[in-house]
Write a structure and sequence with these properties.
With 250 residues, the protein is an alpha/beta fold. It has one domain: 3-Layer(aba) Sandwich (Carbamate kinase). InterPro entries: AceGlu_kinase-like_sf, AcgluKinase_fam, ArgB, Asp/Glu/Uridylate_kinase.
Length: 250
C-alpha cells in the first residue's frame, strides 16, 4: 500500500498527544498519506499491577506475563489506554477505529518462550484486509499490541515489534518509533542518519545498549522487510535519527 506512515506511541501515550502532534497527522493526511497508530502501555500496566499487589517481573526488556498479568494487560490496554487515545483523536476531528487481536484476529502470533515468559508472544501474521479497508475510507486504525494464537490464546506482544510488522505488511514509507529521547546518541551527539550496517557495528562495540537496543533491532527488521525509512524520535514533528538500508556517507 502506497503512502502509509506507521507510528508507534510509547506507554505514556498522552505525552505525545500535543497540538503539534495532531497538526502533523492532519498535514500528512492532507498530503495523501494514510496513518496507522500502534500504542504501548507499559507504564500503566506496571502501575495497575502494583495497585493490585501483583509483582512486576521483567526479563530482557519483556514483561513476564502470567495468566493474572495477561488479564491486567488486556484490561489496561483495551479498557484504559486505547480509549484515551481514540477519544483524543476524535476530539481533534479525526476518524479513528480502536483495534485489538479479537477484531478479525488482526494479529496472529506464537509464544516466544512459554516456560520462561508465559504469555509473551511474537508476531507471525498481520491481517491487512481490515486495515486496508479502514485506510481507504480515511480512518486511522489504533492498534493494541495484543495477539492471538491460532488456537485462540491471547498473547502480550512488544509494541515495537507489532509496529514493525504492520509497517512491513503495509509496505509503509515511514515508521516512527517514538521514545523519550530525540534520537540515537553516539559520542554525545544525536545522529541524523544510521544505516543498518552501522547499527550492527554500534551493537558490536556496545555503544548501543539498554532500551534503545530493541528499538534499533526492530528498525532493522522493518527496513529488511521493505519499509523505506524508520525514525527514532520523541516527536513526529522532528525527524530524529533516520534508519535506512543504504550506507550513510560521512
Amino acid at each position: 500500500m502506497k503512502k502509509v506512515i506507521v507510528i508507534k506511541m510509547g506507554g505514556v501515550a498522552s505525552d505525545n498527544l500535543t497540538k503539534s502532534f495532531f497538526e502533523q497527522v492532519d498535514q500528512w493526511q492532507k498530503d495523501g498519506n494514510k496513518v496507522v497508530i500502534i500504542h504501548g502501555g507499559g507504564h500503566y500496566i506496571s502501575d495497575m499491577m502494583q495497585r493490585l499487589n501483583v509483582p512486576v517481573v521483567m526479563q530482557d526488556g519483556l514483561r513476564v506475563t502470567t495468566e493474572e498479568t495477561l488479564k491486567i494487560t488486556q484490561m489496561v490496554l483495551i479498557g484504559q489506554v486505547q480509549p484515551t487515545i481514540t477519544s483524543h483523536f476524535q476530539q481533534e476531528g479525526f476518524s479513528v477505529v480502536g483495534l485489538n487481536a479479537s477484531c478479525g484476529q488482526i494479529i496472529t502470533g506464537t509464544f516466544l518462550d512459554k516456560n520462561t515468559l508465559g504469555s509473551v508472544g511474537k508476531v507471525e501474521q498481520i491481517e491487512t484486509e481490515l486495515l486496508e479497508h479502514l485506510l481507504a475510507t480515511k480512518h486511522i486504525p489504533i492498534i493494541a499490541p495484543l495477539g492471538l494464537t491460532k488456537k485462540g490464546e491471547w498473547l502480550n506482544i512488544n509494541a515495537d515489534h507489532v509496529a514493525c510488522k504492520v509497517a512491513e505488511e503495509l509496505q509503509a514509507e515511514k515508521l516512527y518509533l517514538l521514545t523519550d529521547v530525540p534520537g540515537v546518541k553516539k559520542e554525545n551527539q544525536w545522529l541524523k542518519e544510521l544505516s543498518t550496517n552501522e547499527i550492527a557495528n554500534l551493537k558490536t562495540a556496545k555503544i548501543i545498549k539498554g532500551g534503545m537496543l530493541p528499538k534499533l533491532e526492530s528498525a532493522v527488521m522493518a527496513i529488511k522487510g521493505g519499509v523505506k525509512e524508520v525514525h527514532i524520535t520523541n516527536q513526529i514533528q522532528h525527524a530524529g535519527t533516520i534508519i535506512k538500508s543504504k550506507e550513510v556517507v560521512a
